[in-house]
Design goal:
- By secondary structure, the protein is an alpha/beta fold.
- The chain is built from seven helices and ten strands.
- The strands form two sheets. It has a six-stranded mixed sheet, sandwiched between helices.
- Helix 6 links the parallel strand 7 and strand 8.
- Helix 3 runs parallel beside helix 5.
- The chain is globular and about 50 Å long.
- It starts with 28 loop residues before the first strand and ends with a strand.
- The chain binds adenosine-5'-diphosphate (ADP) and magnesium ion.
- Magnesium ion (MG) binds next to helix 1.
- Magnesium ion binds next to helix 1.
Length: 244
Amino acid sequence: MTSSTGRAPAPPDVSPQDERIDIETRPSLEAKDLYRFFWAGDEETLALRGVNVTVSAGEVVAVVGPSGSGKSTLLSCLAGLDEPSGGTVWVDGERMSHQPESVRADLRARTIGIVLQSDSLFDHLTVADNVRLSQSLATSARRRPQVDALLDSLGIRSRARAHPSQLSGGEAARAGLAVALANDPAVVLADEPTGELDAETERRLLALLTQRARQGRAVIIASHSPAVRKAADRVIALADGRIV
Ligand code: ADP
Ligand code: MG
């Protein structure tokens, strides 16, 4: 496979065919033989050691494992925020790994929603404007839900004009989810999204993520929480950078 360094991001319908997996059978997300090494001085950390992950549309997959097992590194590589040292990541039929940052950023904006524990919102923008900002970053997005309809589906339409500092914990979690879903991404990646939430808020957030999967998206959640494990269709357990 040739590198496409310097290539402008192709519009979704005319991407090079050799970069695509058959539409009928392709998974939403596929990672093959992922390795990620970190060096600090002479010390080498093997954060991922040959991880294979395939997630189909409609699935909720939990990534579990002790602290330091590689969950966040895996999600960062899947999101194209980090480059694996070895292996390949495909998202919605397009190669994410080993691409120029501009190509990764475009693919990420179009196809991936990222949900974090907290602080994913800009304080000086309203909830609605945080969502619009995310939409404006995905210039070639295929699907762009109406902001009001999206906030309505998450039960926070009445908070559209509120600023993040004015939101309750549960509202902030759903506003963060709204930003992640701003471009109706094929893949939702959530890294410990419920770590700071009470049980009821966690339950609501997981219900919304599960609903998303049932609407044909792929959802991957890294978490320590038993509730996440229970909500998932499938569990991937990591230890020392390997699937166990
Ligand atoms: P988890 O999310 O499961 O807690 P991480 O993916 O954050 O695990 O970390 C996996 C391993 O990689 C840990 O040993 C961590 O210290 C190391 N690591 C993660 N990111 C970096 C980095 N940027 N530089 C050096 N080491 C890192
Ligand atoms: Mg982590």
